């Protein structure tokens, strides 16, 4: 296969270090705050690995690339990182971007431990090269659907933008709720203005509105419109994709952003390791770390363990997924083959449904846990 030369200024492979390529959204239209938290977790873990002696005496080094939520940019970054000689890839938050990266990593024979993306099928065919820490979308969103039914919501409207991720989420909810007496009405945000959503909700008699749209727009406009419509005072707004997890949500919406249940991947109580990492992440970020920061830390913890045990040979790394047993910040991490999932999967990290407390929007309330 002919490969183009590395772009000017690209890092040269440092043979004295063991390198991991990190894919992170750090500029718009990527979710920058999520990218910053993911990178903080990755960097903290690398620092701790090196403070403890590195990888059999060799320093561990991150080679970071900004994906900016662009699948083509991510695929190009995978090509570049493979040429630079990284032992493995880590990271990515956006599912459609991770899917492009996973496909390219699979084609190149480059191990990829995906931190945060949740689409069930990150690759078209089963692959030995890709593993994932985040739960599959079907797993988390079915837990969210259980929560909806438990609190009495059977007629659900989803305000959805066009993307594979949002379409997959709507399909999961529809397929899970229908046999249990629930219904899902889809509102196409490609044609509806945020203010028009309110009329649709009234006309459809929905008791809950789920936000399957990007952050900060359209999600902020929709929330403000619904909160200000007196006809919808009793409707529950939900955000299964986790938009309210980050501080920017509270900054933009204040009290309007409270009482909006979302999915997060944390245990009810952190272990001693989790508490220590939380403190270090809070210091690094200057704010409370999101679950995404913990995913970043756990990603490097797994890869460091694999590298110590199996070396930096790519084929040996990919062959080791089934033997991983690492104590992460959110529990012991092991990978397995799971029905309907095309890669090695941690089945499952803890899953919660939480919201921001209306009395204190900076405080989270656990509403439901797996």
Strand pairing plus helix content: what structural class?
alpha/beta
Work out the radius of gyration: 21 Å
Mean pLDDT: 95
Oligomer: single chain
Order of helices and strands: EHEHEHEEHEHEHEHEHEHHHEEEEEE
Q: How many DSSP H or I helices?
A: 11
- Beta-strand residue percentage: 15-25%
Percent range of helical residues? 25-40%
Anisotropy-based shape: globular
Describe it.
With 370 residues, the protein is α/β, with parallel strands linked by helices. It contains eleven helices and 16 strands. It has helices at 32-51, 71-84, 95-108, 137-150, 164-177, 194-204, 219-227, 247-253, 272-285, 291-310, 314-319; strands spanning 18-24, 60-66, 88-91, 112-114, 130-132, 155-160, 183-188, 208-212, 236-238, 262-264, 326-328, 331-333, 335-337, 344-346, 352-357, 360-369. The strands form four sheets. It has a seven-stranded mixed β-sheet, with helices on both faces. Strands 7-6-8-9 form a four-stranded parallel β-sheet, with helices on both faces. The protein has a three-stranded antiparallel β-sheet with strand order 10-15-16. Helix 1 packs parallel to helix 10 and helix 4 (137-150) packs across helix 5. It starts with 17 loop residues before the first strand and ends with a strand. The model is unreliable at 1-13 (pLDDT under 50).
List the helices and strands and how they pair.
Elements: E1 18-24, H1 32-51, E2 60-66, H2 71-84, E3 88-91, H3 95-108, E4 112-114, E5 130-132, H4 137-150, E6 155-160, H5 164-177, E7 183-188, H6 194-204, E8 208-212, H7 219-227, E9 236-238, H8 247-253, E10 262-264, H9 272-285, H10 291-310, H11 314-319, E11 326-328, E12 331-333, E13 335-337, E14 344-346, E15 352-357, E16 360-369
Parallel strand pairs: 1-2, 1-3, 3-4, 4-5, 5-14, 6-7, 6-8, 8-9
Antiparallel strand pairs: 10-15, 11-12, 13-14, 15-16
Helix pairs in contact: 1-9, 1-10, 2-3, 4-5, 6-7
């Amino acid at each position: 296969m002919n490969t183009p030369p590395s772009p000017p200024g690209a890092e040269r492979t440092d043979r004295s270090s063991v390198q991991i390529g990190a894919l992170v959204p750090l500029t718009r239209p990527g979710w920058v705050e999520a990218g910053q938290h993911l990178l903080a977790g990755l960097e903290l873990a690398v620092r701790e690995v090196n403070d403890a002696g590195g990888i059999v005496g060799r320093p561990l080094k991150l080679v970071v690339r900004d994906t900016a939520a662009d699948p083509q940019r991510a695929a190009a970054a995978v090509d570049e990182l493979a040429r630079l000689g990284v032992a493995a890839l880590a990271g990515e938050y956006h599912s459609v971007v991770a899917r492009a990266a996973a496909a390219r990593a699979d084609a190149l024979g480059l191990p990829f431990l995906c931190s945060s993306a949740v689409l069930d099928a990150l690759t078209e065919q089963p692959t030995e090269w890709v593993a994932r820490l985040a739960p599959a979308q079907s797993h988390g969103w079915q837990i969210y659907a259980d929560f909806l039914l438990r609190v009495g919501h059977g007629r659900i409207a989803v305000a959805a933008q066009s993307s594979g991720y949002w379409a997959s989420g709507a399909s999961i909810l529809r397929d899970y709720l229908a046999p249990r007496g629930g219904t899902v009405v889809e509102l196409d945000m490609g044609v509806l203005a945020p203010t028009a959503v309110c009329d649709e909700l009234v006309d459809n008699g929905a008791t809950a509105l789920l936000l399957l749209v990007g952050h900060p727009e359209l999600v902020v406009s929709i929330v403000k419109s619904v909160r200000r419509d007196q006809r919808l005072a009793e409707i529950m707004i939900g955000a299964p994709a986790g938009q309210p997890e980050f501080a920017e949500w509270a900054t933009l919406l204040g009290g309007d952003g409270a009482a909006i249940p979302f999915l997060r991947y944390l245990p009810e109580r952190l272990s001693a390791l989790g508490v220590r990492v939380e403190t270090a992440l809070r210091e690094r970020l200057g704010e409370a770390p999101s679950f995404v920061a913990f995913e970043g830390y756990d990603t490097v913890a797994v890869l460091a363990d694999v590298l110590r045990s199996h070396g930096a040979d790519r084929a040996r790394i990919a062959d080791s997924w089934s033997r991983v047993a690492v104590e992460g910040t959110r529990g012991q991490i092991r990978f397995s083959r799971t029905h309907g999932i095309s890669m090695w999967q941690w089945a499952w990290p803890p899953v919660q449904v939480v919201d921001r407390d209306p009395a204190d929007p900076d405080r989270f309330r656990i509403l439901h846990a797996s």
